[in-house]
Please model this.
Amino acid sequence: MFSEAHTHLHTVRDLLRFAVSQFNKAGLHSGHGSATAYDEAAYLILKTLYLPLDQLEPFLDARVTATECKQVLAILERRVHERIPAAYLTHEAWLGEFSFYVDERVIIPRSFIAELLQTQLSPWIGDPDQVTSALDLCTGSGCLAILMAHAFANAQIDAADISVDALAVAHKNVEDYGLQDRISLIESDLFSALQGKRYDLIISNPPYVNAESMAQLPQEYRHEPENALASGADGLDATRQILQHAARHLTEDGILIVEIGHNRDALELAFPQLPFTWLETSSGDEFVFLLQQSQLSRGKS
Model:
């Protein structure tokens, strides 16, 4: 199908129709940024043709050269046959208005914490200028650390991850945003390399996929680092460690914010003594919790 398609496809509209048909036929999973086959097809075509990502309509009837057509088809074919997520094909992922370099050394950024940072964590942080130290634990590509740097102008930020490969990607993103003086990248297994450090704010989007869900993941997710997804039988192995040690790494008025996927019920059952505050996101209030330093300290006593 792909090998002969270039002789019949002449415009961006033709390519878009073909791509959507092939994506739907293949039953691709769209869980890495694009909600539909149409959105993902449009993105891949516009990106490959170096066209503005927010201006499809003016170019729909523009004719493409034979070389351009073959380039687009090559990307579409890889998406269909290899099930490689679009972000890895283009080495680009978006959180809101921020774009980040990604490759298969890191999971593709997708976090409800990103949307919470757009409001500077109001009302939980009354004065963003008073946040002078912050930690992004399990930073991956460094995306949340970079968003924190924009949200809290006075903060010095540590971005920690166990993966040296992930930190190499984060280094590129930090450099791309010119934040080398404000974001320090640290190789650390959770808090292990952060002894003695305290922060006004700790955020984390740790591994949280349970064993049952890992066994059923669509093929697209198999391209992502397993250690950035899997977190034991119930998905809470990393979160347990974070809750055990976070209090000693927070300032007196510090707060902890953690994303845990679909594990709210399991978490509340495992830690009935902790008064979790569940933060409202675009998909509901089940995915991100907040705890204050004092609450964590009391919960351990």
